[in-house]
Write a structure and sequence with these properties.
This protein is 19% helix and 39% strand. It has 579 residues and is of the alpha+beta class. The protein folds into five domains: 2-164, Immunoglobulin-like (Sandwich), CATH 2.60.40.680; 175-284, Immunoglobulin-like (Sandwich), CATH 2.60.40; 293-359, Sandwich (Immunoglobulin-like), CATH 2.60.40; 377-466, Immunoglobulin-like (Sandwich); 481-578. Strands 2, 4, 6, 7, 9, 11, 19, 21, 22, 24 and 25 form an eleven-stranded mixed sheet that branches. Strands 5-8-3-1-10 form a five-stranded mixed sheet, with no helix packed on it. A hairpin with a 4-residue loop joins strand 29 and strand 30 (414-419). The longest helix has 61 residues, at 480-540.
């Protein structure tokens, strides 16, 4: 039941925290402790800080339950004062239970913050027994300031400590340097100043946003027989003339926020040489929270509002401010105020990020609503023109306002933009003489005043630019394109008619062939009948025929001759029709 209530609280908290800022985020934040390891005596107090490495992302809220080994550690106090925590309000104030071995909290800030070592709170433990103690974060979330409460948390690191009886001397937090065994050369001059390198902090002029144990290195000339080191806040300090041994590198414990100096000097057979000094500048805290102020108010008719913003960073100082408007490119400035570029009508998100010299940042965001001018009307526009002809448009706007017209092609590319002529009554007109390519253009008409303030664009019919006509038939203009299309249509129609005629003729010829073959077969049958009769009479002999037979013979001869003539005449006629 307790966890359910905490989850409900977290949802409420995320909704509240999401109100303040908006930044796109990736899941990359790490929750860790400082220190992470160590050996302590029973009875000793141990201050452990819970921190966030946000990996360059902005967050404004977090929650966690810390579990610790209650047999070895007990909580003496939880510090969440401004010096120990970046949070400035708490949905659930930090509280602890030594009986359960837990510390829990839900906190946030009204500004998005980012850094590699952002402190959330400090827990002071007392070591009450010997053994190994583990502090583990759980039930955790780090909420991005992206307007939707995205959880940035990707990993959590534990802290492991060893508690020993008070009679045992604890091991040093950092290892002792490795000694170099050799015989040093004898020379006749003092040692030169060492040349120092620190891989973790390679540039002594820079500020760094993280702290950890670090290794310092130098080259040992062959005459060197002793090394002396020191770490403090004095820039020109000289380490005492007491050798720590002969070594060419040494580990140092992590330094706190601020500027420290590492000092190293060499000794040879002549004596101690000059000291080298290496600057270490650490700042793990973001700048203080701030608010963006708009001189004209959050809702204004001024298209270029003036904003001001200021904060401070007591450690490394403010390097610059980064201003982003909507999705435009960022503007970097060292000034604490800025007149925004011309903004169109409607809402705009303005984000200001204060960045310190170590790269930590705090940001604030606002929404500015630009009130639009009255939208002009479009009374007339040339909707169709030939290539090279002018486009004319006219309409009305409020007296005292100007009018800007824009033509945009079908690829959303601006083809024309110009100011219209406006009279004292607000009547406007514009003649577009710029050559336009063939195509379709959307027309946008916007009112504008002397400050650059705009209206929402007026809706108007699209403009079509076509090729120049080659032939005109009264109101009908035909260009080469239309002529080619017409010829193609006529050719297609002609081909269709010719094909229909050809198919029809072929069908008629097929029908004529069928009828002709039928008639010819019929005539051939008649002719074959008469010829068969004649052949029979011939076989009987004409001399033996009587008068009636002779008359029948003559009839068949005449009939065969008539059928033959019919066949000749009919076939000639039918062949002519088939051809």
């Amino acid at each position: 039941m307790f966890h359910i209530m905490r989850i409900k609280k977290l949802f409420i908290f995320i909704a509240a925290a999401a109100f303040f800022t908006s930044v796109s985020a990736a899941h990359a934040a790490t929750l860790f402790f400082s220190p992470k390891t160590g050996e302590f005596q029973v009875g000793q107090e141990v201050a452990v800080e819970l921190k966030v490495n946000s990996a360059g992302q902005s967050f404004n809220a977090a929650q966690a339950t810390l579990s610790f080994s209650k047999e070895v550690l007990e909580v003496k106090a939880v510090d969440y004062s401004p010096g120990a925590s970046i949070f400035n309000f708490w949905l659930e104030q930090p509280r602890f239970s030594n009986q359960d071995g837990t510390v829990l909290f839900i906190g946030g800030t009204t500004n998005g913050v980012s850094g590699s070592s952002i402190p959330l709170l400090k827990v002071v433990f007392t070591v009450k027994g010997a053994g190994e103690a583990v502090i583990t974060p759980g039930d955790a979330a780090i909420t991005a300031s992206d307007g939707s409460g995205t959880n940035l948390l990707s990993s959590m690191e534990i802290a492991t400590f060893t508690a020993v009886p008070s009679v045992v001397t604890p091991r040093p937090a950092v290892p002792e340097p490795v000694q170099v065994q050799r015989v040093s050369e004898v020379v006749g001059r003092l040692p030169a100043e060492p040349v120092l390198t620190v891989p973790l902090y390679p540039d002594p002029e820079n500020w760094y946003g993280f702290t950890a144990d670090f290794l310092a290195q130098w080259r040992l000339p062959p005459d060197i027989s002793g090394v002396s080191t020191a770490m403090n806040e004095a820039p020109r300090f000289t380490p005492e003339a007491r050798s720590e041994g002969l070594f060419e590198s040494k580990m140092f414990g992590g330094v706190g926020n601020g500027i420290r100096y590492l000092h190293v000097r060499f000794r040879n057979n002549i004596g101690w040489g000059p000291a080298a000094h290496y600057r270490l500048a650490i700042d793990t805290l973001p700048p203080l929270p701030f608010k963006i102020n708009v001189a004209q108010g959050l809702k204004t008719g001024d298209p270029s509002p003036h904003i001001s913003f200021a904060t401070s960073d007591s450690i490394s100082g403010i390097k610059h401010y980064v201003i982003r408007i909507d999705n435009r490119d960022e503007t970097v400035t060292e000034e604490r105020e800025m007149t925004l570029p011309l903004l169109g009508p409607g809402p705009h998100r303005v984000v200001v990020r204060a960045v310190d010299r170590a790269g930590n940042f705090t940001e604030d965001s606002i929404d500015i609503d630009i009130v639009p001018l009255p939208t002009p009307t479009v009374g007339f526009v040339t909707q169709s023109v030939s290539l090279g002809e002018f486009v004319f448009a006219a309409g009305k706007t409020e007296p005292g306002l100007g009018v800007r017209m824009t033509l945009v092609d079908d690829k959303s590319q601006e083809a024309f933009s110009g100011e219209a002529t406006v009279d004292a009554a607000g009547n406007w007109e514009i003649l577009v003489k710029n050559p336009l390519s063939i195509g379709r253009y959307n027309l946008f008409v916007t009112a504008v005043d002397a400050r650059g303030a705009l209206s929402y664009p007026a809706e108007a019919s699209a403009v079509r630019v076509r090729a120049n006509p080659v032939i005109s038939f009264g109101p009908l203009d035909l260009g080469w394109f239309e002529i080619v299309i017409l010829l193609l249509l006529l050719a297609a129609a002609g081909s269709g008619i010719a094909g229909w005629w050809y198919v029809r003729e072929q069908s008629m010829r097929s029908m004529y062939r069928t009828v002709a073959m039928r008639d010819i077969n019929k005539l051939n049958a008649m002719l074959a009948e008469h010829l068969g009769a004649l052949e029979g009479m011939r076989s009987r002999g004409l001399a033996n025929m009587d008068e009636q037979a002779r008359a029948e013979f003559a009839h068949h001869v005449e009939s065969a001759r008539a059928v033959s003539e019919k066949i000749e005449k009919y076939m000639g006629q039918e062949l002519d029709r088939i051809r």
